[in-house]
Design a protein that fits this description.
Layout (H helix, E strand, L loop, with lengths): L1 H15 L4 E5 L5 E3 H17 L2 E6 L6 E2 L5 E9 L10 E9 L13 E7 L3 E7 L5 E6 L5 E7 L7 E5 L8 H12 L3 E2 L5 H11 L3 E4 L9 E2 H14 L3 E4 L17 E2 L1 E4 L1 H12 L11
Parallel strand pairs: 3-5, 11-12, 11-13
Antiparallel strand pairs: 1-2, 3-4, 5-6, 6-7, 7-8, 8-9, 9-10, 13-17, 14-16, 15-17
Helix pairs in contact: 1-2, 3-6
Protein name: Sedoheptulose-1,7-bisphosphatase, chloroplastic
Pfam family, one: FBPase
Pathway: Carbohydrate biosynthesis; Calvin cycle
């Protein structure tokens, strides 16, 4: 509930806050924008107010802070896609909730919950709980209340793709062939440059695939703790699948060894994740019975 309150406020701040640089960088070397810092502050305050958060860390402040509560620890990306706020594309908040008081030596599968806020023409709160079926979508109403509008339990097959880090096709032949397949099969391109809307559309449309891979000249940018593991829980609870770290394993099963751990990822229907693994790594043992 506390995160819901923060997301509602962030939605307003995104619409009205400055998008100018702050002349400072976070510990990863990324320039922080004023709206990033606002969102970060709001989420830390909300989690402290909840009373049930022991540790919290964000992509902007990756060293865990003791918030004095007990029960859970939370990792979040306060405003994923903030570099496209000024273009008025959709952006979002991502968070993962783990039981206990540590945020390393864990996997995404141990999450108690994960969620994201999507700030676009509509403000949406999307959440998945470990012990409840489905992925749930809530829509922010004019009166400030959240309305439950959709529960997704199945992601089927469909020709829609969101290819991240396309520059990797220059020296990653397998990725180049995969992208050529999508184009040759007349897949619809739906890519905004924001991870939240690009992954969220898979859940909403109940089809599609999102890819972000590396190559010898392009390194991984996506953080396992703050982005990849929480989104993996959302997609898989919705009935989809993920493939992480070049290992043909779910994004929920890669151990978080350090807060800044980066990785490559694919989200989508089970058939599309099977195809991704077959093109990229030669086989897909987990999905051998799934029709791609």
């Amino acid at each position: 509930m506390s995160v819901c309150e923060a997301i509602r406020t962030i939605a307003y701040k995104v619409r009205t806050a400055s998008c100018g640089g702050t002349a400072c960088v976070n510990s990863f070397g990324d320039e922080q924008l004023a709206v990033d810092l606002l969102a970060d502050k709001l989420l830390f305050e909300a989690l402290k107010y909840s009373g049930c958060c022991k540790l919290a860390c964000s992509e902007e402040v990756p060293e865990p802070l003791d918030l004095g509560g007990e029960g859970f620890s939370v990792a979040f990306d306060p405003l994923d896609g903030s570099s496209i706020v000024d273009t008025n594309f959709s952006v979002g908040t991502i968070f993962g909730v783990w039981p206990g008081d540590k945020l390393t030596g864990i996997t995404g599968r141990q999450q108690a919950a994960a969620g994201m806020g999507i700030y676009g023409p509509r403000t949406v709160f999307c959440i998945a709980l470990k012990d409840a079926p489905g992925c749930h979508e809530f829509l922010l109403q004019d009166d400030g209340k959240w309305l439950h509008v959709k529960e997704t339990e199945t992601i089927g097959e469909g020709k829609m793709f969101s290819p991240g880090n396309l520059r990797a096709t220059f020296d990653n032949p397998a990725y180049e062939k995969l992208i050529a397949y999508y184009i040759g099969e007349k897949y619809t391109l739906r890519y905004t440059g924001g991870m939240v809307p690009d992954v969220f559309q898979i859940i909403v449309k109940e089809k599609g695939v999102f890819t972000n891979v590396i190559s010898p000249s392009t390194k991984a940018k996506l953080r396992l703790l703050f982005e990849v593991a929480p989104l993996a829980l959302l997609v898989e609870k919705a009935g989809g699948a993920s493939s992480c770290d070049g290992l043909c394993v779910s994004g929920l099963d890669v151990e978080v060894k350090q807060h800044d751990q980066r990785t490559q990822i694919c989200y989508g229907s089970k058939g599309e994740v099977r195809r991704f693994e077959e093109y990229m790594y030669g086989n897909s043992p987990r999905f051998s019975e799934v029709t791609a």
